[in-house]
Protein backbone atom coordinates (compact mmCIF):
# COMPACT_ATOMS: atom_id res chain seq x y z
CA UNK A 1 0.00 0.00 0.00
CA UNK A 2 1.35 3.45 -0.81
CA UNK A 3 0.90 6.47 1.45
CA UNK A 4 -2.12 7.80 -0.46
CA UNK A 5 -3.99 4.52 -0.07
CA UNK A 6 -3.12 4.39 3.64
CA UNK A 7 -4.51 7.90 4.11
CA UNK A 8 -7.71 6.83 2.36
CA UNK A 9 -8.04 3.95 4.85
CA UNK A 10 -7.40 6.29 7.79
CA UNK A 11 -10.04 8.68 6.44
CA UNK A 12 -12.53 5.82 6.17
CA UNK A 13 -11.91 4.72 9.77
CA UNK A 14 -12.24 8.32 11.02
CA UNK A 15 -15.62 8.56 9.30
CA UNK A 16 -16.61 5.33 11.06
CA UNK A 17 -15.72 6.92 14.41
CA UNK A 18 -12.57 4.97 15.28
CA UNK A 19 -9.90 6.56 17.47
CA UNK A 20 -6.28 6.91 16.29
CA UNK A 21 -5.32 4.01 18.58
CA UNK A 22 -8.00 1.77 17.08
CA UNK A 23 -6.98 2.77 13.57
CA UNK A 24 -3.34 1.98 14.34
CA UNK A 25 -4.33 -1.48 15.62
CA UNK A 26 -6.38 -2.16 12.48
CA UNK A 27 -3.50 -1.15 10.22
CA UNK A 28 -0.96 -3.17 12.23
CA UNK A 29 -3.08 -6.32 11.97
CA UNK A 30 -3.29 -6.00 8.19
CA UNK A 31 -0.04 -4.37 7.08
CA UNK A 32 2.29 -5.79 9.75
CA UNK A 33 5.75 -4.22 9.46
CA UNK A 34 4.71 -1.90 6.62
CA UNK A 35 2.05 -0.18 8.73
CA UNK A 36 2.52 3.59 9.31
CA UNK A 37 3.72 4.93 12.65
CA UNK A 38 1.25 6.02 15.32
CA UNK A 39 2.32 9.65 14.87
CA UNK A 40 1.39 9.45 11.17
CA UNK A 41 -1.98 7.89 11.96
CA UNK A 42 -2.66 10.48 14.66
CA UNK A 43 -1.70 13.38 12.38
CA UNK A 44 -3.97 12.32 9.50
CA UNK A 45 -6.83 11.32 11.79
CA UNK A 46 -6.74 14.85 13.24
CA UNK A 47 -6.68 16.37 9.73
CA UNK A 48 -9.74 14.42 8.61
CA UNK A 49 -11.57 15.11 11.85
CA UNK A 50 -11.09 18.85 11.21
CA UNK A 51 -12.88 18.43 7.86
CA UNK A 52 -10.04 17.86 5.43
CA UNK A 53 -11.19 15.96 2.31
CA UNK A 54 -7.99 15.61 0.28
CA UNK A 55 -5.71 12.62 0.82
CA UNK A 56 -2.96 14.12 -1.35
CA UNK A 57 0.06 16.04 -0.06
CA UNK A 58 -0.46 19.76 0.39
CA UNK A 59 0.38 21.73 -2.73
CA UNK A 60 3.85 23.23 -2.60
CA UNK A 61 4.68 26.76 -3.69
CA UNK A 62 6.06 27.14 -7.18
CA UNK A 63 4.79 25.23 -10.19
CA UNK A 64 1.18 24.09 -9.98
CA UNK A 65 0.43 20.51 -9.04
CA UNK A 66 -1.12 19.70 -12.39
CA UNK A 67 2.05 20.77 -14.18
CA UNK A 68 4.00 18.25 -12.08
CA UNK A 69 1.45 15.57 -12.96
CA UNK A 70 1.71 16.42 -16.65
CA UNK A 71 5.48 16.25 -16.38
CA UNK A 72 5.37 12.81 -14.75
CA UNK A 73 2.96 11.44 -17.35
CA UNK A 74 5.15 12.82 -20.15
CA UNK A 75 8.29 11.30 -18.59
CA UNK A 76 6.64 7.89 -18.29
CA UNK A 77 5.33 8.07 -21.85
CA UNK A 78 8.77 8.99 -23.22
CA UNK A 79 10.49 6.30 -21.15
CA UNK A 80 8.18 3.59 -22.48
CA UNK A 81 8.54 4.78 -26.08
CA UNK A 82 12.34 4.73 -25.75
CA UNK A 83 12.51 1.29 -24.13
CA UNK A 84 9.45 -0.95 -24.24
CA UNK A 85 11.23 -3.56 -22.09
CA UNK A 86 11.27 -1.28 -19.05
CA UNK A 87 9.83 -2.79 -15.89
CA UNK A 88 7.22 -0.92 -13.85
CA UNK A 89 9.57 -0.93 -10.86
CA UNK A 90 12.29 0.74 -12.95
CA UNK A 91 9.88 3.44 -14.12
CA UNK A 92 8.73 4.08 -10.54
CA UNK A 93 12.32 4.50 -9.37
CA UNK A 94 13.17 6.80 -12.27
CA UNK A 95 10.27 9.24 -11.75
CA UNK A 96 10.14 8.76 -7.95
CA UNK A 97 6.50 7.70 -7.57
CA UNK A 98 4.87 4.51 -6.32
CA UNK A 99 4.55 1.36 -8.42
CA UNK A 100 0.76 1.56 -8.01
CA UNK A 101 0.77 5.09 -9.42
CA UNK A 102 2.86 4.01 -12.42
CA UNK A 103 0.39 1.19 -13.11
CA UNK A 104 -2.45 3.70 -12.94
CA UNK A 105 -0.83 6.15 -15.36
CA UNK A 106 0.14 3.41 -17.81
CA UNK A 107 -3.22 1.68 -17.90
CA UNK A 108 -5.79 4.35 -17.09
CA UNK A 109 -4.32 7.43 -18.74
CA UNK A 110 -1.84 6.43 -21.44
CA UNK A 111 -3.21 3.09 -22.59
CA UNK A 112 -7.00 3.26 -22.30
CA UNK A 113 -7.51 5.18 -25.54
CA UNK A 114 -5.22 2.81 -27.46
CA UNK A 115 -6.94 -0.31 -26.09
CA UNK A 116 -10.53 0.84 -26.32
CA UNK A 117 -11.15 4.25 -27.92
CA UNK A 118 -14.92 3.83 -27.70
CA UNK A 119 -14.74 3.29 -23.93
CA UNK A 120 -12.35 6.22 -23.55
CA UNK A 121 -14.72 8.55 -25.39
CA UNK A 122 -17.75 7.27 -23.43
CA UNK A 123 -16.03 8.42 -20.24
CA UNK A 124 -14.26 11.56 -21.54
CA UNK A 125 -15.69 15.00 -20.71
CA UNK A 126 -13.93 18.25 -21.57
CA UNK A 127 -14.60 21.88 -20.66
CA UNK A 128 -13.50 25.34 -21.70
CA UNK A 129 -14.64 28.94 -21.52
CA UNK A 130 -15.32 31.41 -24.33
CA UNK A 131 -16.66 34.94 -24.71
CA UNK A 132 -19.79 35.22 -26.85
CA UNK A 133 -20.29 38.76 -28.14
CA UNK A 134 -23.53 40.59 -28.87
CA UNK A 135 -22.08 40.98 -32.36
CA UNK A 136 -19.56 38.60 -33.95
CA UNK A 137 -18.21 39.70 -37.37
CA UNK A 138 -18.56 37.29 -40.28
CA UNK A 139 -15.50 35.39 -41.40
CA UNK A 140 -13.89 36.37 -44.72
CA UNK A 141 -15.41 33.27 -46.29
CA UNK A 142 -18.89 34.18 -45.06
CA UNK A 143 -18.68 37.76 -46.31
CA UNK A 144 -17.69 36.89 -49.89
CA UNK A 145 -20.08 38.13 -52.61
CA UNK A 146 -20.65 37.28 -56.27
CA UNK A 147 -19.83 40.19 -58.59
CA UNK A 148 -20.44 40.60 -62.30
CA UNK A 149 -17.76 41.02 -64.97
CA UNK A 150 -16.26 44.48 -64.80
CA UNK A 151 -17.80 45.27 -61.42
CA UNK A 152 -15.53 46.53 -58.69
CA UNK A 153 -15.35 44.75 -55.36
CA UNK A 154 -17.39 46.75 -52.84
CA UNK A 155 -15.41 48.18 -49.96
CA UNK A 156 -16.36 46.96 -46.53
CA UNK A 157 -15.95 48.75 -43.26
CA UNK A 158 -13.67 47.02 -40.79
CA UNK A 159 -15.76 45.29 -38.15
CA UNK A 160 -14.79 44.15 -34.67
CA UNK A 161 -16.63 42.13 -32.02
CA UNK A 162 -18.96 44.19 -29.85
CA UNK A 163 -18.12 45.27 -26.31
CA UNK A 164 -21.25 43.54 -25.02
CA UNK A 165 -20.47 39.91 -24.27
CA UNK A 166 -21.14 36.98 -21.96
CA UNK A 167 -18.75 34.26 -20.78
CA UNK A 168 -19.92 30.70 -21.49
CA UNK A 169 -18.39 27.67 -19.78
CA UNK A 170 -19.25 24.57 -21.82
CA UNK A 171 -18.85 20.99 -20.54
CA UNK A 172 -19.27 18.47 -23.37
CA UNK A 173 -18.45 14.98 -24.54
CA UNK A 174 -18.79 12.70 -27.56
CA UNK A 175 -22.60 12.77 -27.29
CA UNK A 176 -23.12 16.51 -26.89
CA UNK A 177 -23.23 19.30 -24.34
CA UNK A 178 -23.63 18.15 -20.74
CA UNK A 179 -23.77 21.57 -19.07
CA UNK A 180 -23.43 25.25 -20.03
CA UNK A 181 -22.90 28.00 -17.48
CA UNK A 182 -23.18 31.69 -18.34
CA UNK A 183 -21.20 33.98 -16.06
CA UNK A 184 -23.22 36.79 -14.53
CA UNK A 185 -22.04 40.33 -15.21
CA UNK A 186 -19.50 41.53 -12.67
CA UNK A 187 -18.41 38.05 -11.62
CA UNK A 188 -15.17 36.22 -12.41
CA UNK A 189 -14.32 32.54 -12.59
CA UNK A 190 -12.44 31.81 -9.38
CA UNK A 191 -11.47 28.46 -7.92
CA UNK A 192 -14.54 28.55 -5.67
CA UNK A 193 -16.86 29.40 -8.57
CA UNK A 194 -15.39 26.69 -10.78
CA UNK A 195 -15.65 24.19 -7.92
CA UNK A 196 -19.38 24.94 -7.66
CA UNK A 197 -19.70 24.31 -11.41
CA UNK A 198 -18.16 20.86 -10.92
CA UNK A 199 -20.94 20.06 -8.44
CA UNK A 200 -23.50 21.13 -11.06
CA UNK A 201 -21.69 19.05 -13.66
CA UNK A 202 -21.83 16.01 -11.41
CA UNK A 203 -25.61 16.38 -11.10
CA UNK A 204 -25.94 16.87 -14.87
CA UNK A 205 -23.91 13.70 -15.46
CA UNK A 206 -26.25 11.70 -13.22
CA UNK A 207 -29.25 12.94 -15.21
CA UNK A 208 -27.83 12.90 -18.75
CA UNK A 209 -25.06 10.28 -18.63
CA UNK A 210 -26.31 7.50 -16.32
CA UNK A 211 -23.81 5.06 -17.88
CA UNK A 212 -21.08 6.92 -15.94
CA UNK A 213 -22.67 6.21 -12.55
CA UNK A 214 -20.29 3.33 -11.84
CA UNK A 215 -17.33 4.50 -13.92
CA UNK A 216 -14.76 7.20 -13.35
CA UNK A 217 -15.21 10.28 -15.50
CA UNK A 218 -12.08 11.05 -17.54
CA UNK A 219 -12.11 14.82 -17.11
CA UNK A 220 -10.13 17.26 -19.24
CA UNK A 221 -9.54 20.97 -18.74
CA UNK A 222 -6.64 23.32 -19.38
CA UNK A 223 -4.22 24.73 -16.81
CA UNK A 224 -6.02 28.01 -16.10
CA UNK A 225 -5.40 29.22 -12.52
CA UNK A 226 -8.99 28.52 -11.43
CA UNK A 227 -8.74 24.97 -12.78
CA UNK A 228 -5.53 24.19 -10.90
CA UNK A 229 -6.46 25.81 -7.58
CA UNK A 230 -6.39 23.74 -4.40
CA UNK A 231 -10.14 23.96 -3.88
CA UNK A 232 -10.74 22.54 -7.38
CA UNK A 233 -8.15 19.79 -6.90
CA UNK A 234 -9.95 18.76 -3.71
CA UNK A 235 -13.34 18.87 -5.44
CA UNK A 236 -12.11 16.65 -8.30
CA UNK A 237 -10.86 14.12 -5.76
CA UNK A 238 -14.16 14.26 -3.91
CA UNK A 239 -16.11 13.61 -7.12
CA UNK A 240 -13.61 10.89 -8.13
CA UNK A 241 -13.00 12.48 -11.53
CA UNK A 242 -9.83 11.24 -13.21
CA UNK A 243 -8.07 14.28 -14.68
CA UNK A 244 -6.60 13.77 -18.14
CA UNK A 245 -3.39 15.86 -18.11
CA UNK A 246 -3.21 18.85 -20.42
CA UNK A 247 0.24 19.88 -21.62
CA UNK A 248 0.88 23.46 -20.39
CA UNK A 249 0.46 26.27 -22.94
CA UNK A 250 -1.06 23.95 -25.57
CA UNK A 251 -4.36 25.47 -26.77
CA UNK A 252 -4.14 23.32 -29.90
CA UNK A 253 -4.80 20.28 -27.71
CA UNK A 254 -8.07 21.66 -26.31
CA UNK A 255 -11.01 20.20 -28.32
CA UNK A 256 -13.17 23.24 -27.61
CA UNK A 257 -10.64 25.62 -29.15
CA UNK A 258 -10.10 23.80 -32.44
CA UNK A 259 -13.61 22.37 -32.95
CA UNK A 260 -16.54 23.45 -30.80
CA UNK A 261 -16.05 27.19 -30.36
CA UNK A 262 -14.85 28.11 -33.90
CA UNK A 263 -17.97 26.48 -35.37
CA UNK A 264 -20.18 28.30 -32.87
CA UNK A 265 -18.55 31.66 -33.69
CA UNK A 266 -18.91 30.98 -37.41
CA UNK A 267 -22.62 30.29 -36.95
CA UNK A 268 -23.03 33.50 -34.92
CA UNK A 269 -21.13 35.54 -37.54
CA UNK A 270 -23.09 38.60 -38.66
CA UNK A 271 -25.86 38.22 -36.05
CA UNK A 272 -26.65 41.05 -33.66
CA UNK A 273 -28.14 40.75 -30.18
CA UNK A 274 -29.27 43.45 -27.80
CA UNK A 275 -28.84 41.63 -24.49
CA UNK A 276 -27.10 38.75 -22.76
CA UNK A 277 -30.44 36.97 -22.57
CA UNK A 278 -30.70 36.94 -26.37
CA UNK A 279 -27.15 35.62 -26.67
CA UNK A 280 -27.86 32.85 -24.16
CA UNK A 281 -31.12 31.81 -25.82
CA UNK A 282 -29.51 31.70 -29.28
CA UNK A 283 -26.48 29.75 -28.04
CA UNK A 284 -28.66 27.21 -26.23
CA UNK A 285 -30.76 26.85 -29.37
CA UNK A 286 -27.67 26.27 -31.50
CA UNK A 287 -26.41 23.40 -29.34
CA UNK A 288 -29.90 21.92 -28.95
CA UNK A 289 -30.21 21.54 -32.73
CA UNK A 290 -26.93 19.66 -33.18
CA UNK A 291 -27.15 15.90 -33.74
CA UNK A 292 -25.09 13.51 -31.62
CA UNK A 293 -23.12 12.53 -34.73
CA UNK A 294 -21.79 16.11 -34.89
CA UNK A 295 -19.67 15.42 -31.81
CA UNK A 296 -18.57 11.92 -32.71
CA UNK A 297 -18.84 10.97 -36.37
CA UNK A 298 -17.35 7.48 -36.10
CA UNK A 299 -18.48 5.07 -33.40
CA UNK A 300 -16.81 1.98 -34.79
Automatic annotation (TrEMBL):
Q: Which InterPro entries match?
A: Mos1_HTH, RNaseH_sf, Transposase-MT_Hybrid, Transposase_1
Concerning Pfam families, the annotation shows: HTH_48, Transposase_1
Q: Where is the Mos1 transposase HTH domain?
A: 3-51
Molecular function in Gene Ontology: nucleic acid binding
Q: What is this protein called?
A: Mos1 transposase HTH domain-containing protein
Q: Which organism is it from?
A: Tenebrio molitor (Yellow mealworm beetle)
